[in-house]
Please model this.
Amino acid sequence: MALTEDTIRDLAGFESGAGPVVSLYLDVDGRRWPRYAECEERAARLVREALDRVSGNGHSGAAADLHRVEEQVRGGLARSTTRGLAIFASGEALWKVIELPVAVKDQLVVNDCPHVHQLEAVFNNHMRFGVLLADRQRARVFVFELGEIVEKDELFEALPRHEDDAGDRDRGHERGHFEAAVHQHLKHAAKAAFEVYKHRPFDHLIIGAPDDIAPELERDLHSYLKERIAGRVSVPPSASEHDIRSAVLEVETRVERAKEQAMVERVRNGAAAGRGGVTGLDEVLAAIGERRVDTLVVSQGFATPGWRCSCGQLASRGRTCGVCSAEMEPVDDVVEVAMAGALHQAAHVEVCLDNADLDVVGRIGALTRF
Ligand SMILES: [Zn+2]
Model:
């Protein structure tokens, strides 16, 4: 199933009443994990570790759900369009498998409620992509949201047919008709894209059209759409929705990387200037404690143990809280707690993939409000 706001709301409001809830996030990105068996192994390891944990903490009722989740992963999935997997299970009461077009961080949580932070982050950060595919007589428009088509329209305008008995004298005249029809069609295609945009606005527009008509098509676009052009794909209007979706994902990945890079640059510039940005775990944890994080940027896969105080402070070193001097409790992954804390403070969380500029400053940073 696809991710919608309702899905998150349902999960966040889920009350098991009875047993514990298992939440699994798994990175199944085929570019990082070319062999699916590696994903299965990572899921099996997460499940083994969770089984060890729950046997001692009163959540042993989760064992069956943990096995079921592992089975689900072993059943495989279509990785051409799925890069992240989220599964939520609680006995008879809850079973949800969500395939995401973006990667997630491996995580398995057994708790009283579904663990939805990563889903929230994915949902809050996603962009909508419009696609306009055209040739000389057809046009199709799509809007993609989280890898799913949420809107589409199409247009077919048959070109004037060549008359076999037309003499040479009429050839030029006929060509004029033909070209006028193409011009007209491209204008209609551009208009159709704008109508779709008005109904379902998108952040970026992807164009697919033969080289000899693409420039004219782009010129015909409304200025709102012109400024949203994110790239071209060589996909004809007759392509299958599967092929169109794959091409969109490629562009989406490029746009996403560029967005992350711009964000990391802003964070680093802010940190260098001493205002508006911080880098490194200690500084970021302090900024979250002071509730002044606007956007948290984290390298994908960054996890490290740390400490949490009952006063809300987070720290990489314990055990005495630097703010209230109380004794803090250890946490397995303070990065995860920091992400949850940032989301709770209505900050954005941007998970960055293979960003060397972020890695070099400690794999974490933040834009700060003051
Ligand atoms: Zn404290």
In short: The chain has three domains: 5-125, 128-239, 259-368. The domain at 128-239 is CATH 3.30.420.60 (Nucleotidyltransferase; domain 5). The mean pLDDT is 90. The first strand starts at residue 21 and ends at 27.
